[in-house]
């Protein structure tokens, strides 16, 4: 086996492992949204308006996917400065997304929708669980972006050598589209 064949096999293995992880996450959220649908028939189910911070966070997370994609394209052309700027922008947008999620929680609490306690409802408990589980996965995504940025500064990426950046981008895009699914589900299935 040549070095290139070994390198290609290693890359395929890592991508396959990432796909398995993402599929397992899909199963978790499929279970949560299924439980949400079943629970919606309860007599104590309450409808709610989606907090505006969640709407803004959706735009922010989609923009972060674009910046990560453009960073991948830039490094493929060995544009290091552009890649640096785009990776740092992706990280900043990811952090802004998390901040906006917490602002959304504040909006829910302000209108009396608490996740736990005597005044909580099954509706808000589900909403909080879904968003917090996504934020937990997003923390992993932010860590992966930090690792990608660190490796970029160590000059581990260049045209033809982008595996770590590709894996980070795959996972980030997955998290972004997962949030888009959750947002649309929660927005239209109240």
From TrEMBL:
SUPFAM superfamilies xrefs: Cytochrome c oxidase subunit III-like
Primary localization: membrane
Sequence ranges assigned to domain Heme-copper oxidase subunit III family profile in this UniProt record: 1-190
PROSITE patterns reported for this sequence: COX3
Membrane topology: Multi-pass membrane protein
Compartments reported by the entry: Cell membrane; Membrane
TM regions (residue ranges): 16-38, 50-71, 83-105, 125-150, 171-189
Pfam families to which the protein is assigned, alphabetical: COX3
Keyword tags: Membrane, Transmembrane, Transmembrane helix
Family statement drawn from the similarity comment of this UniProt entry: Belongs to the cytochrome c oxidase subunit 3 family.
PANTHER family for this protein: CYTOCHROME C OXIDASE (PTHR11403:SF10), CYTOCHROME C OXIDASE SUBUNIT III (PTHR11403)
Record-given protein name: Cytochrome c oxidase subunit 3
Organism: Flavobacterium arsenatis
Lineage of source species: Bacteria, Pseudomonadati, Bacteroidota, Flavobacteriia, Flavobacteriales
């Amino acid at each position: 086996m040549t070095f290139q064949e070994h390198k290609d096999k290693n890359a395929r293995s890592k991508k396959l492992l990432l796909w398995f992880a993402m599929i397992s996450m899909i199963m978790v959220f499929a279970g949560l949204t299924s439980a949400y649908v079943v629970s919606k028939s309860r007599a104590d189910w309450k409808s709610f308006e989606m907090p505006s911070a969640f709407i803004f966070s959706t735009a922010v997370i989609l923009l972060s996917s674009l910046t990560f994609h453009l960073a991948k394209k830039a490094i493929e052309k060995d544009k290091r400065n552009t890649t640096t700027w785009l990776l740092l922008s992706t990280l900043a947008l990811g952090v802004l997304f998390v901040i906006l999620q917490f602002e959304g929680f504040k909006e829910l609490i302000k209108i009396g929708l608490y996740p736990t306690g005597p005044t909580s409802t099954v509706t808000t408990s589900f909403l909080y669980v879904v968003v917090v589980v996504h934020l937990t996965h997003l923390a992993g995504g932010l860590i992966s972006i930090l690792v990608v940025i660190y490796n970029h500064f160590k000059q581990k990426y260049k045209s033809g050598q982008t595996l770590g950046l590709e894996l980070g981008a795959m996972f980030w895009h997955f998290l972004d589209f997962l949030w888009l699914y959750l947002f649309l589900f929660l927005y239209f299935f109240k």
